[in-house]
Amino acid sequence: MRAREIQLRRFARTEVGQSTPQTSNAGEGARTTQPSNAPRTYCNAQMTPRQIRAFCELTADCERLLERAMAQQGLTARAHDRILKVGRTIADLEGQQGIQPKHIAEAIQYRTLDRTFWA
């Protein structure tokens, strides 16, 4: 419930006419531009590519981990975005503002399990 509340607060601040910040502290306070006819975002799974860039900022360690998994497992750009969304959710469940390498690693494991299960 707390993770869902975090997400609702995050996306409630996403207002029409606000631009994505260019600073490295895009986390919780970031705002993105949405067209007036865009559907409202309620959870991380619904994030647009622009919202992913704003709310799923990664450290260099997280980037390297994700790049390595992408190359080793032959993952697509779509899988990359899904891993970021799941990593953001895991961080929310822990009450963490930033995504940490352990969050990305866990998200990659879920993706690996998903591919193994459905293959």
Strand content: under 5%
Q: Tell me about the biggest sheet? A: none
Rounded radius of gyration (Å): 14 Å
Which CATH first-tier class would you pick? Mainly Alpha
Give the averaged pLDDT, no decimals. 84
The structure class reads: mainly alpha
Named CATH architecture: Orthogonal Bundle
Cα distance spanning the termini:
33 Å
- Put simply, the count of helices is 5
CATH topology: Helicase, Ruva Protein, domain 3
- Quaternary structure of the protein: single chain
Q: What is the string of SSEs from the N terminus onward? A: HHHHH
Number of strands: 0
| Structural domain tally | 1
Weakly predicted, low-confidence segments = 15-26
Can you walk me through this structure?
- The protein is globular, with a radius of gyration of 14 Å.
- It is 56% helix and 0% strand.
- The chain has 119 residues and is mainly alpha-helical.
- The protein has 5 helices and no strands.
- The protein starts with a helix and ends with a helix.
- The protein has a single domain, classed as Helicase, Ruva Protein, domain 3 (Orthogonal Bundle), CATH 1.10.8.
